[in-house]
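Quick one: Mitochondrial carrier from Rhizopus azygosporus, structure tokens please.
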Amino acid sequence: MSRNTLDGYYLFSSSTAALVARIVTHPVDTIKTRLQIINTTTKIPSIFSVAFPLTTLYRGLPVSMLLSVPALSAYLSCYEWTKQTLNTRYKLSRDTVMSHLLSACAAEVVAGALFTPMEVMKNRLQTQQKDSTITLAKTIAETEGFRGFFRGYWMGMAVFVPHSMIYFVTYESMKQWMNESHFQTYMLCSTVAGVTSIAVSTPLDTIKTRWQVSAADQGQQFRQGPIAIAKNMIKQEGRVALTRGLLARIACGIPSTTISMTIFEVLKDSREKILGNVGKTFAIQ
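--- reply ---
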């Protein structure tokens, strides 16, 4: 890989990975979000109860694509840049656990500035039937101000910084252990890392989602804050409420991370070949 981790090809690789992963997994992400916000003390809702009508499963996709592509590009670029900087400036090997942890943390903090507005709008569009993307954006700006788009940023950091740390430590460690550079290796490593990180971060993600969605009506749940929401969930619905949407989150998260990381890694590995073919094509013309 080139020393310049922010060059055009690198951004092309990460953007392609983000675009394909989002289109494929968005319907399952919608189901996961709807499951997480259901408040019930009796029967646990089934996936089928929130999946219809099927035409609504792609609600929130435009804003998700608009922000998730640059967000994932920033995320992956920052991760690689941080590892490179730690190695060249501070002599910290790229293959150490500390390098993975610090790089994952930096990537999540930077990318969160784009991921949070996407999550706020996407979650509300997925759970509400009345607003278009533009109408919702205007409503948030008018009723909550600019801060409304970043509702849950710090909560998101509490969810996804540990998530990213666990993911990349597991992913990179498995890659080193398997010592192979094939798409099957990337798929397996990403799947194992994804399941592990999702299982750990799901309770906090459920709380974050409820808080972000509750901001739409400015109700009591929103005013109480995430800690009170967590306490009420456990008191009224039991601890199982904190894992609501876990299977849907795995069903969404695993394909998403597997597709994005595999495409990203394969494109990185094929850099010289692809750029060489492009150069030959233009030379012939």
